[in-house]
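# step 3/5: fold
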Amino acid sequence: MIIDLSHIIQDGMPVYPGDSETVLVQSKQIRKDYYNNHQLSVNMHAGTHIDGPMHLLDIQECLSEFPIETFIGEGCLLDVTGESIIDYKEEYEQLIKPNQIVIVHTGHSQFYGESKYFEDYPVLTPQFAELLVRKRVKMVGLDTPSPDKYPFEVHKTLFQNRILIIENLTRLEPLKSAKSFEVTALPLPIQADSSIARVIARIMD
């Protein structure tokens, strides 16, 4: 079974407060121009996307420079539904393996499109971030707009250790019953700090 964990990209889609709006227009009409075309103006942090280290660190390494294998890996789901603070738990020591893509299911995606989604979301603690660093995971994925809030120390801890962040995931519920799954989170091959992405999970059992 393959599950699409991405929000659809559409005109006026929700964006992080202060970011530029998404504009998707049909620029050509088949009845007038003899073909259809669309034009998209989108910041790289709208909808489901992958944050790269260049987003918050003073470096010039674009997300497109990361090896392609970074974006594909065995998934590990942590069900933290109802928790506002995602902290270290000893049980995670056995659950999380090196080179995995850790998916944190908070249930917060149900508020996508509402002001609450960006104003009151669960966050990761520095201790949880240090666990991910110690476990040498590839990426951490969230059904929230961010793993933390200003001054974004969790972001920076992960970036300094080359752990990428997938934000604004959705439809994570089926993964809770999966014995094993693989995550494919492909950014555009774009020279930018981060990228909108299509993220899927393939349930193996």
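# step 4/5: annotate
The chain has five helices and twelve strands.
# step 5/5: archive (pending)
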